[in-house]
Amino acid sequence: MAYPQLRRPDEDRHRRRRRQRRLVISFFLFIALVVFLESPLTRIRHLVVSGNRDVPADRVVRASGLRPGMSLWQVNGSAVSAQIAAALPLVERVQVTVRPLRGEVDLRVEEKHVVAIARQGGRYFRVLNDGTVYDEITPEDGFRWPVLTVAGLASVTPGRTLGDGDAVSVCRQLARLHEADVSRVSEIDIDRFGVATIYLIDGFAGQVAARQLAARFSTLLAAVSYFAQHGYRPGVVDLTGQPPYRYTPFRPSGTGGVGGG
């Protein structure tokens, strides 16, 4: 029974040595990790912006708050995306990708775009596809987009969403239509009952529920084409109900566009 007792001090010594070795190895691993995290390999060396059309890349970088030399581990993608979108009204969202081996942060931008010109009194404002008012413009700047008039709209303020649900819905729907189709629209008037009158550049107009504009647009074009081919002069086609759709010609004083009807 004495032999096992002689081995116990040796076993204790081995255990202490193993524990010491683990502590030493852990210490050096910790030092190596700290050195690695503080090394240039884990720093931002390149910031790459893509997908932007109207927003300059340098503005995206400035809004991100990122800069070369920052630690890659400090990059919070969702926070960076939210920060850029808050600073730049034309930015819808940003996909942030960190590439540690390259020391690179990619900022892929998805932009909003202008879909309409809101008119209030004698003032005009560009409106984005989410219904946000972008900026005020003058008629001399030219109107590349449909002019949007909304009955009862209290105010139009750059940086804020249009204060009318039907108007916001129309803006979102215009973004889904083909550009060639939107280019045929000169003006959209939304009344207090949520009915949108869409004036086309060929002189015809159509009435649809504002929130069904995109869904009924192809039907409107087909109806207008039918009446035009059958010799009807410009007028309003009412698509708020079921076919056959009612056609009402414009009065002579309002012929050609937004005149009476």
Describe this structure in words.
The protein is α/β, with parallel strands linked by helices and 261 residues long. The chain has 2 domains: 40-111, Ubiquitin-like (UB roll) (Roll), CATH 3.10.20.310; 114-254, Rossmann fold (3-Layer(aba) Sandwich), CATH 3.40.50.10960. It is 34% helix and 26% strand. It has 6 helices and 12 strands. It has helices spanning 2-37, 57-64, 77-87, 165-176, 179-182, 213-229, and strands at 46-50, 91-99, 104-111, 114-120, 123-128, 133-137, 147-150, 185-190, 195-200, 205-209, 235-238, 246-249. Strands 6-5-4-7-8-9-10-11-12 form a 9-stranded mixed beta sheet, covered by helices on one side. A hairpin with a 4-residue loop joins strand 8 (185-190) and strand 9 (195-200). Helix 2 (57-64) crosses helix 3 (77-87). The longest helix has 36 residues, at 2-37. Residues 254-261 have low confidence and may be disordered. Keywords: Cell cycle, Cell division, Cell membrane, Membrane, Transmembrane, Transmembrane helix. The chain crosses the membrane at residues 21-37.
CATH architecture of the largest domain: 3-Layer(aba) Sandwich
The portion of residues forming beta strands comes to 25-35%
Radius of gyration: 32 Å
Globular, elongated, flat, extended or rod-shaped: what is the shape? elongated
Q: Please mark out the parts with pLDDT under 50 across 5 or more consecutive residues, or reply none.
A: 254-261
Helix and strand element order: HEHHEEEEEEHHEEEHEE
The N- to C-terminal Cα distance equals 116 Å
Number of helices: 6
Q: Helical percent range?
A: 25-40%
What about the largest sheet? 9 strands, mixed
Number of strands: 12
Q: Tell me the domain tally.
A: 2
- Name of the CATH class of the largest domain: Alpha Beta
What is the fold-level CATH name, i.e. the topology of the largest domain? Rossmann fold
Taking strands numbered 1, 2, ... along the chain, how are they ordered across the largest sheet?
Answer: 6-5-4-7-8-9-10-11-12
Structural class: alpha/beta
Can you give the mean pLDDT? 86
